[in-house]
Amino acid sequence: MGISRRQFLQGGALAGAALALSGKPGEASVDAPDLRTKGLKVTTTICPFCSVGCGLIVHTKDGKVVNTEGDPQHPINQGALCPKGGALFQIANNEHRLQKVKYRAPGSDKWEEKSWDWALDRIAQRMKETRDKTFKKTELNKKDKKEYVVNRTDGMAFFGGAGLDNEECYLWSKFGRAMGVGQLEHQARL
Amino acid sequence: MTNHWIDLKNSDAILAIGCNPAENHPISFKWIEEAMDKGATLISVDPRFTRTSSKSNIYAQIRPGTDIAFLGGLMNYALQNNLIHEEYVREYTNATFIVGEQFDFEDGMFCSFDDQEKTYDLKSWAYATGGDGKPMRDMSMKNPKCVYQLMKKHYKRYDVDTVCAITGTKKEDYLKVAKAFCSTGRSDKAGTILYAMGITQSTHGSQNVRAVALLQMLLGNIGIAGGGVNALRGESNVQGSTDYGLLFHTLPGYLKSPEFDNVDLKSYNEKWTPTTKDPKSANWWGNTPKYTVSLLKAWYGDNATAENDFCYDYLPKRMGNYSFVKVMEKMGRGELDGLVCMGMNPAAGGPDSNSSREALGKLKWLVTVDLWETETSIFWKRPGVNPKDIQTEVFMLPAASSIEKEGSISNSGRWAQWRYAAIHPVGDARSDLHIIDEFYKRVKSLYVKQGGAFPEPITKLAWSYGNGHEPDVHLVAKEINGYFTKDMTIVDKDKTLEFKKGDQVPMFKYLQADGSTVCGCWIYSGSYTKEGNQMARRDASDPTGLGLFSKWSWCWPVNRRVLYNRASVNPAGAPFNTKRPIIAWDSLEKKWKGDVPDGPWPPMKDDKEGKYPFIMLPEGHGRLYALDMKDGPFPEHYEPVESPARNLLSKVQSNPVVKVPKNVSSDTGRFPYIGTTYRVTEHWQTGAMTRSLPWLVELVPDMFVELSVSLAKEKGIKQGDQVKVTTERGSIQARALVTSRLKPFNVQGKMIEQVGMPWHFGYAGLATGDSGNVLTPTVGCANTGIPEYKAFLCNIEKGGKAA
């Protein structure tokens, strides 16, 4: 039959019926949607860009994303996507993605590759040093000239993240406040 | 959003002001167009003729920063022409409330202003109360001190001619908008207002939002299908990140972060738990102690007991303002040692980016967690600086993308939707959940070993999310939903409910203030119950046909799809609009049908149990007149801080409560044009997530500056020329995009040109360009501090370095 994807879509039910009747799907163009993704692992997701919350389906093979497209069952977008949502594929398949932990020493002009363990230990050390050094047990209120217990870490700020999942936001808030961070802010303020 | 995306199809009139959904929320247009196919009118009010404008029935041009004048004029039009929904206004808003004798407004100023501190005494705006302790009301709304009369008087000044002289809108266009939108004051019509950063990014941004809400209340458009006050939020989970308290002044679930003088849990609860003497008011925030204690139990577990105030002492107490701009100013003064950015890019996303980039160099250490390099993570090698001069230690951690991890995000319509890991994170990337878990475990281990400043808030934190390499996201989600800490018997009306220790809480009405429940974020209670993960539901049934999709994902609060829906019915519980009833009271079965109602009580008219519909306010009535806004009970028009115009409504030029920094200028000799920022479909925010995707880069490869045909002619600028734009903060270079989408404004008889630009670019990533935010001012909203990105003064010149 050799129909293109475009003709297949235009033909709609007729093309589908022809396929069913011929009983030889192998003769159809390989880019017919149902064949293209046959046998692949399917997961659903929600677009990471704007806040409409469109659904997508992600097809993977051997641990690689091979296709992403709008989720036709999703009630908001019914399969449709904008250019950004349509580019989700390139987030997973992208040579510019950060894949290693990088470190830039003070005054250095380059990144150095480091292990997670090294970086996380050093970050934890920095967080603790800053907290210990700048922790404010009490603070004077200029209006009533009284000291109040504030238990706050003033030398450190945590920013982000409107791109995090809810569960991540929750732990970020929990960890931040436990660290005494008052300066907890993110994109909603901008 | 009070409503949700699909609900747009139920509107008769859609007013898009300060937003451009066709460009920035493209799929929402599916539902806008569905409404239009059924005869709805789309109105686009924007400084530019946008993609939304091109699809609209009515377009009205508005000068940036003059939204209150525009919306105030619509309120006046509705009030003067008797187009308001009178029953709704009388029964459900505070129009009938009498204001205390002290209240006054004169020539742009409300009463009780402290000129030194630049603050109002909010107490002077209080309601007059009767002997029973309840606010006094006049149901006839004729008392000159009732809110309705005060409001009518306030907005009488906003006549069409004055408004159009301020906003630069053509009078015939303005009248078309007024007629079309105010026609939704009828009970069988629904009007929705959509807004985004065009409304919020202003020195009177919160009052802009209030002006939207006021108009909607006058027209009876809140709580109904096809109505609402609908903020089109910018990021995929900025709704969720706000819900979870990632702002200096909040804790999860919009609880307030404690202030210094909330010295113990008792005083915290007293300060933040509103009370009412009116039995008809649900006063939902009266439950604050239950939510606060359940949160403390989620954070400090068995360590949190009634005897130790549930570890309230461990929470940091704020004194002052730590909003983004203030933190950056402090950083710029060298008063911060460290900063962690989880997917945030202050070097391009904040105002006055040059100052932000300078400030980052004053840090001792910086941690960034991203998918790509950002302007923030490589600030130390940005163009024009010598890395040797920057002593900041920088850690750049690779994060997993949204399809490489599992969890939920909440869209603008408050739907929390679950996502799945399709693949493992690329390379050595890790989920933010994993990274935060590691931060905590390693810091805790240091405190356990070495001690330090007040270690208990860290060492006693309840943090147990499984034994695997990665924290178990389901355990986090279950803690957020909440569970019982002991066996409980709860009598709920005629039912007796038995719960075992460890059972998931079915919904927040079962949360307790005595430590017997844990709940990480009360508004999400009900999202992960005994029945499983409600956020993962995929039942696309829609029995009402109104597009509620109540079994698809889960929506906070308690899966209610339209907020304040008790205002969609009359006091007897019958829908105002019988064609699109969002809820209705079945008097035989004695229950509500339709959407999850705003509380189970019978209709307001029921003498014993009826409640007012605006359940989050102690008086139960929507506030046409606010009691807690720093800059006045009614939105009042002031000019943006940088403006080419004189305020025509009063002698007060700009918001009197806003302190003006030094780096702004209204010198129209140097900066004769109005500058504004915006976004395009093909890029997102600072571009960190899009400028490294080749398909999107191909579509929009370059930074550009948009100007009108007339300004281009005057300046001798042609399409694609290099141009330089300058403000008091700095200058950028980009390609010129000359279009007829931009037109000059008529500002008090003089034509003033505008210059527009996206803020998507920077020096990191595959496609680079100058950042729009180098130009924008740090001055922000009186109530929230959101910067005035949308209205500033600039100059444009041909030239600059070649591409």
Architecture overview:
The complex is a heterodimer of chains A (190) and B (803). By secondary structure, chain A is an alpha+beta fold. Chain A is 32% helix and 26% strand. In chain B, strand 24 (583-586) and strand 25 (591-594) form a beta hairpin. Chain B has a six-stranded mixed β-barrel with strand order 26-32-27-29-28-33. A five-stranded parallel beta sheet of chain B has the order 3-2-1-8-9. In chain B, strands 12-13-14 form a three-stranded parallel beta sheet, with no helix packed on it. Chain B is an alpha/beta fold and 803 residues long. Chain B contains 21 helices and 33 strands. The longest helix of chain B has 19 residues, at 432-450. Strand 4 of chain A pairs antiparallel with strand 14 of chain B.
Write the layout of secondary structure elements.
The complex is a heterodimer of chains A (190) and B (803).
Chain A: H1 5-11, H2 13-22, H3 33-36, E1 41-46, E2 55-61, E3 64-70, H4 83-86, H5 89-92, E4 101-104, E5 112-114, H6 116-134, E6 135-141, E7 146-153, E8 156-160, H7 166-178, E9 184-185
Parallel strand pairs in A: 8-9
Antiparallel strand pairs in A: 1-2, 2-3, 4-5, 6-7
Chain B: E1 13-17, H1 21-24, H2 28-37, E2 41-46, H3 51-55, E3 58-61, H4 67-80, H5 86-92, E4 105-106, E5 109-110, E6 113-114, E7 119-120, H6 147-156, H7 160-167, H8 171-182, E8 191-195, H9 197-200, H10 205-218, E9 229-231, H11 238-243, E10 250-251, E11 255-256, H12 265-272, H13 288-300, H14 324-332, E12 338-342, H15 346-349, H16 353-360, E13 365-370, E14 393-398, E15 407-410, E16 415-419, H17 432-450, H18 456-459, H19 473-481, E17 483-484, E18 488-492, E19 495-499, E20 517-518, E21 528-529, E22 532-533, E23 554-555, E24 583-586, E25 591-594, E26 673-678, H20 694-699, E27 704-708, H21 709-715, E28 722-726, E29 731-739, E30 745-747, E31 750-752, E32 754-758, E33 792-798
Parallel strand pairs in B: 1-2, 1-8, 2-3, 8-9, 12-13, 13-14, 26-32, 27-29
Antiparallel strand pairs in B: 4-5, 6-7, 10-11, 15-16, 16-23, 17-20, 18-19, 21-22, 24-25, 26-33, 27-32, 28-29, 28-33, 30-31
Helix pairs in contact in B: 4-7, 4-8, 4-10, 14-16
